[in-house]
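Fold it.
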Amino acid sequence: RVDIVSIPLGNHSTSAKDQTHAIMEALKHTSLPQPLNYTDTVALTFIDGLSGAESFFTEALYRSERMPCYVIGGSSGGKLDFQKSYLYDGQQVCQNQAVMAFLKVAPDFRYAIFTSHNFQRENVSFLVAEASAEERWIHTVLSEDYRVCSFIDALKQHFRVSDNAALEAKLQDYSFAIEIGGQLFIRSVSQFDFQADRVRFYCDVAMGERLY
């Protein structure tokens, strides 16, 4: 059995706290189509990729305590011009929403979830000092001797390059990740904004996180 619901993702121009609260309220008032049990139900979830609300949605989801099942999925894309991104919930095209398809497994079957990626952690990390979770950029990091320095400068120093083009070339073979519970969660760079001295990511990275 499959049932689909759509969750509004709030106003992305508000603070992270306010947007998370708005999503949590929307989740509380969502009509769930069937009893949820993690042993037989998975919520296949897609989030508007331009909403920037993946982490806010995840936090709101767990705080609402309404959906006791596994949630897997990802973000919708577009034409890579970052202008429009669409989802379809079976009835209408959606923007700034999360679409959740609740998949109920037949009684004679069971399921398991696994994750995989092709990265290995190196013994190099950066402690994020100044960042914007809402706009998904990092400006500064904390060095080993507790000095605040430009993230771009720290990367250039690590890779022993001096110009911007060389840094971008070096990072073709690397990505970044945060570590939670011994697992790596990839944080990929979307753009080097050298003029503003910022590194932009496809996913939010918060101040105080350690980026491997």
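The chain has a mean pLDDT of 89.
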